[in-house]
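User: Run a structure prediction on this.
Assistant: Running it now.
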Amino acid sequence: MESETALILEIKGNSLDDGPGIRTVVFFKGCPLNCVWCHNPESKKATIELSWDSKECIGCLRCKDVCPHDAINPQSGDFINRSMCTLCFACVEVCPSGAMSIVGKTMTVDEIMQYVLKDKPFFDTSGGGVTLSGGEPLLNIHFASKLLQTLKANGISTLVETSGYFHWDTFESRIAPFTDIVYYDIKLIDDDEHKTYCGVSNVRILENFKKLVDYSREKGMTLVPRIPLVPGITATEHNLMGIAAFLRECGVNTVELLRYNPLWPEKCKKIGMPDASIDRKLTQWMPPEEYEYCKQLVSKSGLQMSLVV
């Protein structure tokens, strides 16, 4: 049975970084991958979560007073005992500073459209539209299809950002006909490394990309392959040259590099996600010389490259 709702992390308007023109981005919650560097770790789980922001907390402890399961422990560095928390969100209701918040909201297509349609004049004047992102928007592929069809019926351009981990037949029939642009992340070319750092095999991802190349050429869809640069993991000569060779085999001569975002460890703390094993390099911005080196590698491979900030 197809779901009439989806769990939405956030809807962000006035975006200039997620496709052409001014865009509204619908961030879905839930992802089939488990990338260790995910810059939106709060989007990984397809469930509602509780967030605590230590920087916003004023120490009033109203949350502790109302918690029915004694899950608030101010002496703990984590503040919330997640094993005891039942997500009743009584703490959120009484928090005066917004330090406690609910991560994720169940929404219908109509509810999303009410938000999106307010920005349509900006789409029309700038050549923008709506971007589905995540998490992985195609984890709930039937809901995403309904949303995309509704957007197109309202004359709104559509873009899907995806990890490529989906069932091709369903994508071809339910997503592709209603999508103008696809941003397609290829993270690691080695399957064992992909399993280690992303939690799943990349075989389906690479096969889907090959099929999407053919589809985009036949149907006129814009397909943009992207490589997220992660120090010591994806931003290596072996990986970049391997992806470049794969793209050339597919007849693709352009690729975009995504600058590394090291702000995700702080997000992990808010939702109680362990980060004790994080490499120190992953908590720092990529040095300019390392980024320039990656650009040079990609250029030498024969691919044309542009930067997505």
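The chain has two domains: 5-46+108-308, 49-103.
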